[in-house]
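Input record (one chain):
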Amino acid sequence: MGDNNEIVPIKSRKPAKKQSKESKRTKEQRLATENCLRDIMVEVAQTKVMSDTQLKDRLNSYLLRCYENKQYPTVEEGFLSTGYTRRFLMDIAQGKARGKYFSPEAVDILNRFLDICAAFDAKMVMTGKAPMIGYIFRSKQHYGYSDKTEVQLSGNVTKMEEELNVDDIARRYQVETTFVDDKPASNT
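The corresponding structure, as predicted from the sequence alone:
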């Protein structure tokens, strides 16, 4: 060894601390957040489309970027890439609105894009890569699916309404009551 003023590192016999699960999870969450925001900002930076052709090309280039970067395509992000709000483009897709730059063909372009995203979401669920509940929500919000309750009716409803009058209906709802000393008695 050298002189007494020399600093010599001490080697520890303890193994290095392993990263805690919480710390690792936090780093993974931060990385995922960073990646998502980076992807979104790429789409937000796009210029606003001004024609059906530009709309089609922009949505196609968005899907191509998703493929090349191995990222999940979403309706929200795809619509952001056009420079318009999701709500506005959904209104066009549903025929409720028409932008000043778009023809009726824009409805077909947007619905085709929605169909592609719906197919992607469905495949993710079917292969176990996405939860079913998320697919159900997205299907209702973006793809026009809804819960439908079927009610079976038997007989002719209009005929039944014609045959019943107010007195018949009142009789159906009368309750039999036994009176004792002018007061209703309990049926127990």
